[in-house]
Amino acid sequence: MFDLRFKTPPEWLEVVFADFDAFLLDHAACERKAAATGMSFVVRYPDKSELIEPMIEFAREELEHFQIMYRIVHARGLILSDDYKDPYVNALRSQVRNGGLGMLLDKLLVAGIVEARGCERLFMVAEALKARSSDLAGPYLDLARAEARHHGLFFRLARSYFDEPQIAERAAALLDYEAELVQRLPHRAAVH
């Protein structure tokens, strides 16, 4: 599993709830992009049979989460936004090595780290919504639990192709980078 090296500070939640509609729209976009990420593994690595079924299931579940989020934003009278580049995800992806099995390992680990950060933050939002007696607390708790399964999935898939020392060494470097990145990026009303 992925142990994040830096805990999101409570100030992030203040920014989220200062513009909760923007957060909801970003969250919907994240779920849509996660579904696409799952399918990108299927397209990019058709010869890696251990990835295919799990990534199809991951993409399907993330698409269901996008539908949940779409219904939430639609009920609030919000309109989905155009695709945009997420500074957090793009910075993490910049660390992926080009080509070969190193690229596969990095893509799996980066996807797992993104899911781990999403898990941490969705649990924070779920707890805050519960404290506010919001009807969104239940759906957010369910979504956070799914994120917990997802980041574990990417770690397990990495173990299908790489040995533990190789995974641990590369994960350590990426987790160190991610911790520095989270501390450096300004807080936004966004999942990442």
Would you mind describing this structure in some detail?
The chain is mainly alpha-helical and 192 residues long. It has one domain: Ferritin (Up-down Bundle). Helix content is 76%, strand content 0%. The protein contains seven helices and no strands. It has helices at 10-18, 20-44, 49-75, 87-93, 100-131, 137-161, 164-184. It is globular and about 45 Å long. The two termini are 19 Å apart.
Key terms for this structure?
192 residues; mainly alpha; Ferritin; 7 helices
Q: What is the mean predicted local confidence, pLDDT?
A: 95
Question: Portion of residues in helices?
Answer: over 70%
Amount of beta strand? under 5%
Radius of gyration: 16 Å
* CATH top-level class: Mainly Alpha
- Please provide the ordered H/E string of secondary-structure elements: HHHHHHH
Write the layout of secondary structure elements.
Layout: H1 10-18, H2 20-44, H3 49-75, H4 87-93, H5 100-131, H6 137-161, H7 164-184
Helix pairs in contact: 1-2, 2-3, 3-6, 5-6, 5-7
Short description:
The protein has seven helices and no strands. With 192 residues, the chain is mostly helical.
